[in-house]
Design brief:
5 helices; alpha/beta
């Protein structure tokens, strides 16, 4: 049985036109997903009102949601909040789980938080996160498709001459 996953990213509540949300919900509903993946930048400026609107929207989606934060979900101008509790609002309104995991007989999807309080645009994962991801996927059978969800793309080494390389989608 095939699985359908809808991927939403960069919703930027706080800048989104509320008039488009019903249409987006209809498109997602027509796709009849088994899972909706939301890969960060859920808000524009990590304001409470933006998180509340985003949380309400996510609750209306027709499938389980696996979400990770993006750099816009960390407060930009509230320096104290940014340094001491960068994802406190994300955890309160979206999910407290910064490494969400969904699994069934065909797929295993893991969210990895790439945001950092010290960076404004770029993200990264650390060795501890890589090891945790490997442990999380270790029990999966070889037939299970493993999916890693992050907000930031990964830099890849230069390809080996003659190697087949997947192209990075930027959007």
């Amino acid at each position: 049985m095939a699985r359908t996953i809808v991927h939403l990213s960069d919703l930027h509540f706080g800048r989104v036109d509320p008039a488009i949300l019903p249409a987006l919900l209809r498109v997602v509903a027509v796709a009849a997903p088994d899972l909706v993946v939301v890969s960060g930048d859920i808000t524009q400026r990590a304001r409470i009102v933006e998180f509340k609107a985003a949380a309400h929207f996510l609750e209306t989606l027709p499938a389980p949601v696996l979400a990770v934060p993006g750099n816009h979900d960390v407060p930009l101008y509230n320096v104290l909040l940014r340094w001491l509790w960068p994802l406190e609002r994300y955890r309160r309104y979206i999910t407290s789980d910064l490494a969400p995991f969904c699994e069934d007989a065909e797929i295993a999807a893991l969210g990895v938080n790439t945001t950092r309080a010290l960076t404004f645009k770029d993200g990264r994962i650390n060795q501890r996160q890589m090891e945790a991801a490997m442990r999380r996927f270790a029990h999966c059978s070889k037939d299970v498709t493993r999916i890693v969800v992050t907000h930031h793309t990964f830099d890849t080494p230069d390809p080996v001459p003659g190697a087949i390389v997947a192209h990075k989608v930027v959007g």
